[in-house]
Amino acid sequence: DTAVSQTPKYLVTQMGNDKSIKCEQNLGHDTMYWYKQDSKKFLKIMFSYNNKELIINETVPNRFSPKSPDKAHLNLHINSLELGDSAVYFCASSLVGGPAQYFGPGTRLTVL
Amino acid sequence: GDSVTQMEGPVTLSEEAFLTINCTYTATGYPSLFWYVQYPGEGLQLLLKATKADDKGSNKGFEATYRKETTSFHLEKGSVQVSDSAVYFCASVTNAGGTSYGKLTFGQGTILTVHP
Question: I want to staple A52 with a disulfide (CB 3.0 to 4.6 A). Which of A24, A68, A75, B56 is the partner?
Fold first, then answer.
């Protein structure tokens, strides 16, 4: 009964390709997030959705496009992958008024 | 904007030693504060939290007290174990306009290694 799940866990791909990472939560939360963790372990928010609506959009390149088909899912699509996109991407969720956020296991993306 | 600063690591301790990892924050409002732990190869787990001044969060022998006067949320444990070896992140979130869509702001993480 995983709370926040992500697929795939590992993703290795070539520069220029397009890839997607999926996230699902079964906690009944209505807010979901994407974070990026770089090679130095630094974590930074990318996006936040509340009830399928975009709430937070940090200065992320347009190549990154989140999509939320329903409030339990938040997928991340990345176009034209670059070497600098290599990182671990974490999905998280929370209740409005939470404020704690609960994280998925992460997706390690490697761009060759 | 909000920021969180953690003591620089890595921290190396012997089993049963006392642990302190310092964390200070700056925020425009009244943040909620968190400690997250990341074990090797895993995602982030919420370790403990405090939502207002003087609150003490505790879990698994770890404690942290929300100190508004010093804008700090230091993590402590009286006796660490080898299994506590992990990366520890301090984080804050400030409500925006009465909602809790706030983004978590993380410190840089502190690597803890505990030797037998």
Answer: A68
